[in-house]
Design brief:
With about 230 residues, the protein is an alpha/beta fold. The protein contains 9 helices and 9 strands. A 5-stranded parallel beta sheet has the order 5-6-7-8-9, with helices on one face. It has a 4-stranded mixed beta sheet with strand order 1-2-4-3. It is globular, with a radius of gyration of 16 Å. It starts with a strand and ends with a helix. Bound molecules: zinc ion (2 copies).
Length: about 230
């Protein structure tokens, strides 16, 4: 399965990633990707740039870099209170898309029922297109209820290649999520979560698990162009 877009990538603006947007765009071009999403961590992440980094991205970044279509996004932290996310709603309307994720220690750990409820609250926001690395074993949840809600709110579930490196304890959750997403016909997206340009477009392990679970390729958003266009307009 050859993907044409990678929508989860980080730049220096995340505070713990090592490449510039130009380096990432060049790497995307070399890997044969047509679309690159830039999704730096929201400001609640230690070391991440403040909100004005994202407003500048919206203002100044051109549609194409190195011949690659750039989608301007963010990986939001789900705070769950007031504010609910770590970027303002006003700004979020101006980005092309948003991934919403739970990260330790920013999102407080809860029971499986409460974590599922928090994900479902997250899905109620239109600008959230993708739920990031929900396989994370730090946040145990009720998988079937989560997937049913993704179906209801038309959210995309991420199958994150970096989970095979940094979240190995959640890999069984990833398989359970895929089984449930197959049952309910919920779309997924395979993303690299690259923190350095060499990892842009690297989704080999995520693709392998999708094949092993016999998940329908047509429900992989960055493989199915019609589905991608329906969500992202490009
Ligand atoms: Zn993340
Ligand atoms: Zn990330």
């Amino acid at each position: 399965m050859k993907i044409f877009a990678d929508l989860h990538t980080h730049t220096l603006a995340s505070g713990h990633a090592f490449s510039t947007l130009k380096e990432n765009a060049l790497a995307a071009k070399e890997k044969g990707l047509e679309i690159l999403g830039v999704s730096d961590h929201g400001p609640a992440m230690s070391g991440a740039f403040p909100e004005n980094n994202f407003s500048a991205l919206a203002f100044f970044c051109p549609e194409y870099l190195e011949g690659v279509r750039i989608l301007k996004g963010a990986e939001l932290n789900i705070l769950g209170g007031d504010p609910f996310f770590d970027l303002s709603f006003e700004l979020l309307q101006r980005l092309d898309y948003v991934i919403a994720s739970m990260h330790k220690p920013i999102t407080s750990q809860k029971t499986a029922r409460e974590t599922t409820d928090l994900y479902i609250e997250t899905m109620k926001y239109d600008f959230v297109k993708i739920i990031g690395h929900a396989d994370n074993a730090d946040y145990v949840m009720e998988i079937e209820r989560f997937v049913e809600a993704c179906k209801h709110y038309q959210k995309i579930i991420e199958i994150n290649n970096s989970s095979f490196v940094v979240r190995k304890s959640g890999l069984e959750n990833m398989r359970s999520i895929l089984k449930s997403a197959k049952k309910y016909q919920v779309p997924v997206i395979v993303n690299s979560d690259a923190h350095i340009y060499t990892d842009i477009g690297k989704v080999d392990l995520a693709v392998k698990v999708i094949a092993e679970e016999k998940f329908p390729e047509d429900l992989v958003v960055n493989y199915n162009r019609d589905l991608f266009k329906a969500y992202f307009g490009v």
